[in-house]
Design a protein that fits this description.
The structure holds two protein chains of two kinds.
Chain A: H1 25-35, H2 59-70, H3 78-87, H4 92-103, H5 108-117, H6 134-139, H7 143-159, H8 175-184, H9 194-202, H10 207-214, H11 221-230, H12 233-244, H13 257-276, H14 284-287, H15 303-331, E1 342-347, H16 352-362, E2 367-371, E3 380-382, E4 390-391, E5 401-406, H17 425-448, E6 468-469, E7 479-480, E8 483-485, H18 489-503, E9 512-519, H19 542-553, H20 555-563, E10 573-580, E11 585-588, H21 596-621, H22 633-643, E12 661-665, E13 673-674, E14 679-683, H23 693-718, E15 731-734, E16 738-741, H24 753-756, E17 765-769, H25 772-781, H26 783-790, E18 795-799, E19 806-810, E20 813-817, E21 824-825, H27 829-835, E22 843-844
Parallel strand pairs in A: 1-2, 1-9, 3-5, 5-8, 9-10, 12-14, 12-17, 17-18, 21-22
Antiparallel strand pairs in A: 3-4, 5-6, 7-8, 10-11, 13-22, 15-16, 18-19, 19-20
Helix pairs in contact in A: 3-15, 4-5, 4-15, 7-13, 9-13, 10-13, 16-21, 18-20, 21-22, 23-25, 23-26
Chain B: H1 5-20, H2 27-54, E1 60-70, E2 73-81, H3 83-106, H4 113-132, H5 136-154, H6 161-192, H7 198-201, H8 204-213, H9 215-232, H10 241-244, H11 250-260, H12 264-271, H13 273-276, H14 280-303, H15 307-327, H16 331-350, H17 355-365, H18 380-391, H19 396-413, H20 420-439, H21 446-469, H22 474-495, H23 500-526, H24 544-557, H25 565-574, H26 581-606
Antiparallel strand pairs in B: 1-2
Helix pairs in contact in B: 1-2, 1-4, 2-3, 2-4, 3-4, 3-11, 3-16, 4-5, 5-6, 6-9, 6-26, 8-9, 9-12, 11-16, 14-15, 14-18, 15-16, 19-21, 20-22, 21-22, 21-26, 22-23, 22-26, 23-24, 23-25, 24-26
Classes of the chains: A alpha/beta, B mainly alpha.
Chain lengths: 845, 622
């Protein structure tokens, strides 16, 4: 899973004013940065709410505004909803109840007819771009096609992290200064117009001066800049992101949105001088024929958007209701108290949902837990030979600890196909006639018999399992890069205690407790970071699992824990592991320290784990059209593994597609429920946290993390062209930080169509097992967390643990809820998996 | 037909045709047909090559099919086989086969899965015809297919703006190459008085004898071939189309622009080598062009910060070197270099998405140091200049616009007086006048007789210029293209007495397809759509069938080898005399602009983002 950050603290989100106001440069730049896509460079791909800028409004209000202003498609189309209704994916019962709730009982029939058969279209053009389109109307000049290629190429070359053989000169200066220096000291110019070149070199003009020359009337400045920047929101978003988080580029650059805009304004003036002649054009506000509508004026509700809201909620509740019905059915089952064979902690990730189910099925005496995959240990990691640090915890956290890998040196394989020499005249000549033929052989085998290569991303390569880690700070604490090397004893104890209490594992320890991080493997996949564990900032969770196990096995830590009331028996040992979610393989760490007896047990559990992985691979394979799910299990698993190393496989795995739920509670809520890998599962025992202290931390992470993932999938699914990255097949890697189509295109943030095509766009439903008043108090303590619930970007339901009653959060209070769906019991899950590819209903198993 | 060669041409064609009849959603059937076609082709080819190599590897040539014959003209399909074909066929077959397997999975669930495999097989048919062709006419058939399939593959994502824009751009460069080829055919006709086969060019005495008497014709002929080769192989000044062609799915970019399509210019040079072997000036020119391209494109490649454009320019640079090798007569080396470069670039493009994983890891484990490059040795001012120049692609792309397309557009704008009514009246008057003159030919002075062909072809050119630059009226633009063809026919009729059959042959396809195209436009308008040519409309989104019909009509009108017009065009050209370079140029220019105007109309009506914003559409800049 991956996480999200609210990049802008709530307090500084500016008031939405009309854009037709006096120009306030700082405010406009700030607002621009806020509305532009906030995706980091590819290596740090982090899921977040695509429309985070609108999060201060209620969900449906926000999407209506986003759509009308920026032209985004913000939901399925009316036709798609109607189709879902026909197919039964939207249940009539919930359509009725949604209409009744939103419009009143007496209007149900009228509205139902309207949304099912009525003429509902919205054809109004978005407001964005309207002002600037006047250039074309007045002067028949296509500024975009004259400015964009130069602008994109320049900024890409400046930011480039290592594709070009000859890097941008003067990159140690900031963007504008380095360009200016080149303009001054060269026989060429970036501009055709001498006048503009002079303006640039002399550097006496401020942003507003340029706008005055180009736009004229001050009241249009702000809207003009929005129009201009949203004509290439990908590049602008990247610039804004690099400006606010310069450390996200390994080879850092100094660029600001303001510099970028200034240069674009100059290029526009140059284009106009070129097209019309110097002095033969007037500022836009003096020549435009029609006044555009105010970009930020509030958007009134329309029937179309009302219909969208009704359809969407009915669609969501058709699914939620089944789940809730299943959950209260489960509540009544009692969990047998017996001796545990082993316990295993997994990441909260929806991809581990089925893995845990199979593990429990293979060994009914084991116990599984879910918790964010950094396992409560936050630190920077420095691998052997690594020149830089990797953050291994959720992105918003700023760790103070450094963990260094040492002991072994991992040899990195080299692939000459990526060598710059192939691009030089002589090197290319030599290489094409020698290596060229080897490429043919390589290609042949790679297509017929895919195997891993130096170019693939592999979760197991993240850390060398034989290396040692500097987990414990010595007597004399050392510092490196301003970070403390290793944890102190108290710090370690705090983290182990925090982890165990938050998941409710404080007694009845089994002899072996596995802590399983996760990661993914893929090749030919620029979005590889989105497949790894987001609680580890888009990296594999192997180091974290090793670190927490070391701490939990530490004598000193256990002594201190005893004082704090958690007694881990001497016979219990924590074993770290990493689960590769693409290949469904697992690797264990530090097995050699196990006692003979434990080693024997471990061997047995590893077998259990293996067959659970086989079955998990089988369940995943049902979504892959070209894998025959009824095949022999071993061969099927091999097919699944091959996807991770096949150059031609754009879907090595489906990542978080279909995610829809986040369940925070004890395992017996969900143990016998088939949720089709759609749920994040966070273990939590309300009994040891009566006042919700741990719950607050869980929700503070779960709402933005799981909600962010969910909404990124939602928006990438409903408008894959504007809010997603489109098909990944034509993608071209730009400067190692982004992808674009072709060579002159805008960057494409968001998720490619291959990642979202099976996703059903429903908002996340968070279900918490606790008392409603405790939950309400808890979520209201943090304004940032509360915003997610209050504004309905995620839905919240509480299960009262004693009465098993359900309460749903609506209009900021909990209302009782009674599910109406029937959940069927099935024993034929395997058969269902073998035959169906679509989303499955909730089954009791 | 005496050997297996026609079979090699037919297999991909049959594969292509049968792939047209498979359902859109039947991925397995589509990819299987493609794979079986290509694999069968490759295996047969391999077996045949082994047999040929072990049996004395004698190059041979065969006249397979006479399509049209008159007293002093013969249009025939001719195929040949020698080591050049062998290398190109094996390399092409191998790569296409691998890419077919690759794409089966890679394109899974992509809208346009069928279109992709159709186009792939179409391309392969064109490739095979081009490579096996034994004369320029046959080669031209393949060449045209390659041009169209390239257009379709670049514009594979036809609802986005940039792919369509770039497809039209690349097509226009290809069109320049086509005209080089048409003129080369015309000249070689006059030089050799027949549709000479490549094999006869090996006959030194024959070639030498003709060149001796017409040395200028020989040089111009070679230059035309060089223009065609340079356009197709992305040499100067055409190089900038290559990176812009990388708009389709990665495997298609890899195979077409990374390897096969882009090496066809080299192929043309290799094929016609005996023709210019003894023209030292031409050889020097080819070598210099190659060298200049190698240097310029390398400098551009060095500053590229996107992985595909970097590979594209490096590939163009290597092809520049291959040009040098060919000009030096090192044909075997050129062949090896071709195959190696094709394999290398295909593979590099296919693994290009991996570059992030690989290089980021490299970067992570190696300290950030700014690498010294050779350019650091230059004085700052020069180094900055070179950097900026390279980043701007040496202004090559702009120059294309400034010196080629903009003057044409400007000229076209002057013709705004041509409204639909006026142009129809004008057309009728001019044609009637033309016919009256033609009837009374005997009364005309010989000066007038010389002048009239120019006059009418100039009118034709003006009309098509107007069509090419028309921004509003679609029907007008379309009709002007048809009229242009009529004027060409009229012009040539004054030039020489030949049977009306030639004109019928020439105009039949144009008129029939013209009518079909007209009806298609009408139908679209009747559905309440307001179409102009000022922007892209993307109607293939709503009316895919109409789009298909219309593109077939476009192909017919532009003289694509699906109607007799194709032979007619060639035939008409034979009636232009050797000394009428002006007339030949006018006619050739008409043909370029015809093709361009038509593809522009198609692109503007049916491609690009859909006009109605209710659909999920990409940004213009993406």
């Amino acid at each position: 899973m991956s996480t999200t950050v609210s990049f802008v603290p709530l307090a500084v989100i500016p008031e939405q004013v009309s854009s037709f106001a006096q120009f306030n440069e700082e405010l406009t730049l700030h607002e621009l940065g806020h509305y532009l896509p906030a995706q980091s460079p590819l290596k740090d791909f982090i899921h977040h709410n695509t429309l985070h800028a609108f999060q201060d409004r209620k969900f449906f209000d926000a999407i209506r505004n986003a759509s009308t202003r920026f032209g985004y498609k913000v939901s399925l189309s009316i036709e798609e909803y109607r189709q879902y209704f026909k197919e039964g994916k939207i249940n009539e019962k919930f359509l009725d109840s949604t209409i009744a709730r939103r419009k009143g009982q007496h209007l149900v029939e009228i509205w139902k007819e309207k949304i099912l058969t009525g003429d509902l279209t919205t054809s109004a053009l978005p407001r964005i771009g309207m002002l600037r389109s006047n250039w074309k109307k007045c002067y028949q000049v296509d500024l975009d096609s004259m400015v964009h290629p130069t602008l994109f190429r320049l900024v890409c070359s400046y930011l480039d992290q290592g594709i070009s053989s000859w890097q941008f000169p003067l990159q140690d200066r900031n963007f504008l200064n380095s360009l200016r220096e080149m303009e001054k000291n060269s026989l060429m110019s970036f501009f055709k117009s001498k006048r503009v070149s002079k303006l640039f070199v002399e550097n006496r003009l401020e942003l507003s001066d340029l706008l005055e020359m180009l736009v004229g009337d001050e009241k249009y400045f702000s809207q003009y800049l929005f129009d201009q920047q949203f004509a290439h929101q990908g590049w602008s978003g990247m610039v804004a992101t690099v400006e606010s988080q310069p450390e996200t580029l390994i080879d850092s650059r100094k660029i600001t949105l303001k510099d970028f805009i200034i240069f674009e304004l100059l290029l526009e003036m140059d284009a106009l001088d070129r097209h019309n002649g110097v002095g033969k054009w007037k500022p836009l506000s003096q020549v435009m024929v029609e006044t555009p509508s105010d970009l930020f004026a509030s958007v009134p509700p329309t029937e179309y958007f009302d219909a969208i809201a009704i359809f969407q909620e009915a669609f969501e509740w058709s699914f939620y209701d089944e789940v809730l019905a299943g959950l209260i059915m489960q509540q009544k089952r009692l969990r047998s108290k017996h001796l545990k064979t082993f316990q295993a902690m997994f990441c909260i990730d929806d991809r581990e949902c089925s893995m845990r189910r199979y593990l429990e099925q293979e060994d009914s005496h084991c116990e599984t837990y879910g918790t964010p995959g950094f396992f409560g240990v936050e630190f920077y990691f420095k691998p052997v030979d690594g020149q830089h640090l990797t953050k291994l915890c959720p992105a918003p956290v700023n760790p103070k600890v450094l963990i260094k890998e040492s002991g072994v040196s991992t040899k990195r394989e080299v692939d000459p196909h990526f060598s710059k020499h192939t691009h030089s005249i002589y090197g290319g000549w030599l290489i094409s006639q020698t290596l060229g033929f080897w490429s043919a052989v390589k290609l042949f085998f790679n297509i017929l018999r895919p195997t891993g290569s130096p170019a693939s991303a592999s979760s197991f390569k993240h850390m060398n399992k034989d290396a040692s880690l500097s987990i414990e700070a010595g007597e004399h604490i050392q510092y490196e890069n301003g970070l403390q090397v290793g944890y102190t004893l108290t710090e370690m104890t705090d983290r182990v205690e925090g982890l165990l209490r938050s998941i409710g594992l404080v007694k009845d320890f089994a002899p072996i407790v596995y802590v399983v991080g996760h990661g993914a493997s893929s090749v030919n996949n620029p979005h590889y970071a989105a497949y790894d564990c987001g609680a580890c900032s888009g990296r594999a969770g192997s180091v974290n699992s090793r670190v927490i196990c070391y701490m939990a096995n530490h004598k000193g830590v256990r002594n201190l824990l005893e004082d704090r009331g958690i007694v881990i028996p001497n016979t219990t040992h924590f074993v770290g592991a990493i689960h590769d979610t693409t290949r469904d393989d697992i690797e264990y760490f530090d097995e050699s320290v196990l006692s003979l007896e434990l080693a024997e047990m471990h061997r047995k559990h590893a077998m259990t784990m293996r067959s659970a992985l086989d079955k998990n691979a089988k369940e995943r394979s049902r979504r892959f059209e070209y894998v025959n799910s009824s095949k022999d299990l071993n061969r099927l698993h091999q097919d699944v593994r091959n996807r991770s190393v096949s150059l031609f496989e754009p879907r090595p795995e489906l990542n978080h597609a279909t995610n829809a739920l986040c369940i925070v509670g004890r395992r017996n809520l969900t143990e016998h429920l088939f949720l089709d890998r759609r749920s994040f599962l966070n273990s939590y025992d309300y009994q040891i946290d009566p006042d919700g202290t741990y719950l607050r931390n869980i929700l503070r992470a779960a709402a933005p993390v799981c909600g962010g993932i969910n909404l990124e999938y939602y928006f990438s699914r409903v408008d894959n062209e504007k809010l997603g990255a489109g098909s990944k097949l034509p993608h071209n890697v730009m400067g190692l930080f982004g992808v674009a189509n072709g060579i002159d295109g805008d960057l494409r943030p968001g998720l490619p169509s291959q990642m979202i095509e099976v996703h059903d766009p429903v908002r996340l439903l968070i279900i918490v097992e606790h008392f409603p008043d405790v939950v309400l108090n808890t979520v209201r303590t943090s304004e940032a967390t509360w915003e997610w619930f209050k504004n309905e970007w995620v839905n919240l339901v509480v299960i009262q643990p004693e009465t098993h009653e359900l309460f749903v959060l609506r209009k900021e209070i909990f209302e009782p809820y009674l599910p109406v769906s029937k959940v069927h019991y099935t024993e034929k899950l395997e058969r269902i998996i073998e035959t169906r590819m679509d989303n499955l209903p909730v089954y009791s198993i | 037909m005496n050997t297996i060669l026609p079979v090699f041409v037919l297999i991909p064609l049959l594969g292509f045709l049968s792939s047209l009849f498979i359902r859109e959603k039947a991925e397995t059937a589509l990819s299987r047909v493609a794979f079986v076609t290509v694999a069968l082709h490759f295996v047969l080819l391999l077996a045949y090559s082994v047999w040929w190599l072990t049996n004395g590897h004698v190059p041979f040539d065969e006249k397979d099919l006479v399509v049209f014959q008159s007293t002093n003209y013969e249009f025939f399909i001719d195929l040949c086989f020698d080591k050049i074909n062998l290398v190109y066929m094996l390399t092409g077959g191998f790569l296409v086969m691998l890419v077919t397997i690759y794409s089966r999975y890679y394109l899974h669930r992509e809208t346009g899965y069928k279109r992709f495999f159709n186009t792939l097989l179409f391309f392969y048919s064109g490739y095979t015809i081009t490579i096996l062709s034994g004369n320029l006419e046959t080669l031209f058939i393949g060449w045209e297919i390659l041009g169209i399939s390239s257009f379709l593959l670049i514009a594979f994502y036809r609802h986005r703006y940039l792919p369509v824009k770039n497809a039209v751009k690349v097509f226009s460069i290809y069109r320049i190459g086509d005209v080089g080829l048409i003129l080369a055919m015309w000249l070689s006709h006059h030089l050799f008085h027949e549709n000479i086969t490549f094999f006869k060019l090996n006959n030194y005495e024959l070639v030498h004898e003709h060149l001796q008497t017409h040395s200028l014709t020989g040089v111009v002929l070679s230059l035309m071939i060089l223009v065609t080769a340079a356009a197709k192989s992305a040499q100067l000044p055409f190089s900038t189309w290559l990176p812009r062609a990388m708009e389709g799915p990665t495997p298609s970019s890899a195979i077409f622009y990374g390897s096969l399509s882009v090496h066809l210019g080299v192929f043309l040079l290799l094929r016609t080598f005996p023709l210019w072997e003894h023209q030292t000036s031409v050889r020097i020119l080819i070598g210099l062009l190659g060298l200049a391209t190698a240097i310029v494109t390398t400098s551009i490649a060095r500053v590229q910060s996107s992985v595909k454009s970097q590979i594209a320019y490096s590939s163009a640079a290597q092809i520049g070197i291959i040009f040098i090798e060919v000009s030096l007569g090192w044909l075997d080396m050129a062949l090896i270099h071709f195959a190696g470069n094709a394999f290398l670039r295909t593979y590099q493009l296919l693994v290009s998405p991996s570059v992030v994983t690989y290089l980021i890891r490299e970067q992570f484990y190696s300290p950030v140091v700014r690498k010294k490059t050779i350019e650091d040795l230059l004085p700052k001012k020069l180094s900055h200049t070179l950097y900026m120049l390279s980043l701007k692609e040496w202004n090559l792309d702009n120059a294309m616009y400034r010196y080629l397309w903009n003057p044409l557009k400007l000229a076209g704008k002057r013709l705004d007086i041509l409204t639909p009514q006026r142009s129809i009246v004008f057309f009728i008057v001019a044609v009637v006048a033309g016919f009256i003159l033609l009837w009374n030919e005997s009364h005309l002075t010989s000066g007038l007789m010389h002048f009239l062909p120019f006059f009418f072809s100039a009118i034709g050119l003006v009309l098509v210029l107007k069509s090419f630059t028309e921004r509003k009226n679609v029907k007008l633009a379309w009709m002007l293209v048809i009229m242009n063809h009529c004027f060409i026919a009229l012009a040539i009729s004054f030039n020489e007495h030949y049977t009306m059959l030639h004109n019928v042959l020439y105009l039949s396809g144009v008129l029939v397809c013209g009518a079909i195209g007209y009806l298609a436009i009408r139908k679209l308008r009747l559905k309440g759509n307001n179409i102009d040519l000022d922007r892209f409309h993307g109607f293939s989104f709503e009316h895919p069938l109409l789009a298909l019909v219309f593109i077939l009509a476009c192909l017919g009108v532009s003289g694509f080898p699906i109607t007799p017009t194709f032979i007619g065009e060639d035939l008409i050209f034979t009636h232009i005399h050797e000394h009428q370079a002006g007339l030949a140029l006018f006619t050739a220019l008409s043909f370029i602009l015809d093709g361009l105007a038509i593809m522009r109309i198609y692109a503007r009506i049916f491609m690009g983002p859909h006009v109605k914003s209710i659909y999920e559409m990409a940004y213009r800049s993406s």
